[in-house]
Amino acid sequence: MPRHYAIVPAAGSGSRFGAEMPKQYLDLLGRPLIFHTLAALTAHPAIERVWVVLAPDDPWWPRYDWSALGAKLETVRCGGATRAESVGNGLRAAATVAADDDWILVHDAARPCLSRAMLDALCAELADDPVGGILAVPVADTLKRADAGQRVAATEPRDGLWQAQTPQMFRYGRLLAALENHNAVTDEAGAIEALGLAPKLVRGDSTNLKVTFPADLALAAMILRGRK
Ligand SMILES: Nc1ccn([C@@H]2O[C@H](COP(=O)(O)OP(=O)(O)OP(=O)(O)O)[C@@H](O)[C@H]2O)c(=O)n1
Ligand SMILES: C[C@](O)(CO)[C@H](O)COP(=O)(O)O
């Protein structure tokens, strides 16, 4: 039986958020934001281990107490210059534990509202899938293409368009090979697609937001508060 592991890239600087520290350490309901992300993953019974990929010189991680998250958690200080590099380095760090056929769930540190139900749906829908897949939501708004003056150049058809989220779940060996050959991608599915494969879109929901701008943090707090 394949095992399930998670990799959490957490080596970003949060430049679009613009805080005095990387957004993954900002306070969210009394805990660092990433605590909520990791709690969702470590609490899931199918996930055996969670590797958190930190920047090599990250001074924030040691300032907090992570013991409530239990023994599944492991930190690796091998974050790279891009998200894809951080994930690739995390996968290599997992090599002594993960086998080629094991499932790897890659989940952004910056998505703290991942729920048990979303994880259950992803794992159940992909259990027998030959490729793997991602959580995603169909695009709900009308899409405009901007010109150089920030005026509407065109209205784009949204039929068939989905917004990619994480976790993105693929077999360890294939994902590692895919990222080694195609690392100019913004998500793992992009590297798998470059192999000519078609990842499955597992419908999630918009509460699994990525905290990118300050308003997202307030929204995340509302979402998590509403679940208590
Ligand atoms: N070199 C990088 C860049 C990003 N990430 C991680 O990838 C996830 C998604 O990236 P994003 O939201 O873009 O985070 P940042 O890169 O921190 O934000 P920004 O692009 O605004 O600087 C985050 O959990 C981030 O920490 C990473 O591990 N290594
Ligand atoms: C992987 C991702 O969360 C899918 O939406 C997203 O692409 C990561 O953020 P980035 O801004 O592209 O690094």
TrEMBL record:
Please give one Gene Ontology molecular function term for this protein: 2-C-methyl-D-erythritol 4-phosphate cytidylyltransferase activity
Enzyme Commission number = 2.7.7.60
Q: In which pathway does it act?
A: Isoprenoid biosynthesis; isopentenyl diphosphate biosynthesis via DXP pathway; isopentenyl diphosphate from 1-deoxy-D-xylulose 5-phosphate: step 2/6
Q: Which domain of life is it from?
A: Bacteria
Q: Which PROSITE patterns match?
A: ISPD
Q: Site: Transition state stabilizer. Where? A: 16, 23
Gene Ontology BP, a term: isopentenyl diphosphate biosynthetic process, methylerythritol 4-phosphate pathway
SUPFAM superfamilies, from UniProt? Nucleotide-diphospho-sugar transferases (SSF53448)
Site Positions MEP for the nucleophilic attack — annotated at 158, 210
Listed Pfam families: IspD
- Enzymatic reactions: 2-C-methyl-D-erythritol 4-phosphate + CTP + H(+) = 4-CDP-2-C-methyl-D-erythritol + diphosphate
Provide this UniProt record's keywords sorted from A to Z.
Isoprene biosynthesis, Nucleotidyltransferase, Transferase
Task: Name the protein family.
Answer: Belongs to the IspD/TarI cytidylyltransferase family. IspD subfamily.
Per its database record, what is this protein's job? Catalyzes the formation of 4-diphosphocytidyl-2-C-methyl-D-erythritol from CTP and 2-C-methyl-D-erythritol 4-phosphate (MEP).
Q: Would you tell me the protein name for this molecule?
A: 2-C-methyl-D-erythritol 4-phosphate cytidylyltransferase
Task: Give the gene symbol.
Answer: ispD
